[in-house]
Amino acid sequence: MRILFSLLFIGIFFSCQDNRSKNIKPGVLRFYETYFSSEIANSYYEAVEKSKTLNSEKASESESSLSSQFSKGLSDFLMPMGDYCFGWAKTNDKKKVDEILNHPDIKALFPKDLKFMWSAEPERISSQSHEHGYMLYAIRIPENKKPFGENNDIESASTGYDNNSGVITIDIKMTDKGAMRWEEMTTMNQSRVIAITMNNNVYSAPRVMQPISGGNTKISGSFTIEEAENLVDRINTNSKK
Q: How high is the mean pLDDT of the chain?
C-alpha cells in the first residue's frame, strides 16, 4: 500500500468482514515504527543462505536426496518488494515463510526488537501487475513493549465521510496524552513508514510526510459503511474497557 500521510489524514485500506453482533471481537489499533528492508538487508541474506541449509538437513533426514539437491530457502517463497516492505508471498507460501522465519536459528539473525507481521488481506503487487499477495512488514517493537494506541491513546472512533474524495472514513479522536504522543511519533518518523495494525495484522503502512498534530485523524480507504462500522465497534469496545 503506497499511501501518503498528510496533516490529520491517513490513507489506509481495510478489508474486514461484516460481523456486527454481540460477539464482536475488540481490537486495539496499534501504530508501529518499522525497519526499511535496506536496514536489515544483511540479516535477510544470511537468512536466505541459512534457510537453504536447514531445508537441506531436513531433506537429508527424510532420505530425499533429490529434494536435498534442490532445497529451497526463504527467497523462493518471499519476493522482494522495495524498501518500505520486507517482501510479499503468495497465499500458499505464507505458512512456509512463517516456518522459516520462526526457526530459532533464523530469528537469531535479525534484531531482537523486530517482529514480522503480514498484511490483513492480499494486495495488488503493483499497478502493472494483476497478481496479488500478502505483504510482510518488519515491525519495530518499542523497548517498553507498548506501541502507540495502548495506554488510552485513543478516546473514540466513529464513521465519517470525506467530501473531497467521496470515501467513507473512520474518524479517530485521541486523548490529550495520545495527541501529544502521536505528534511526537510522526515528528520522529518523517520520511519513514509507520505500520497501522490490529490483532497482529497490518492494515496500512504509509510513509510519514509531516508531523500530525491536533489529536484528530481521519482514516480513509476502500471499505464499505458496514466494514467501517464493524471496525469502529471493535475499536470502541476496546477503548471503553
A: 81
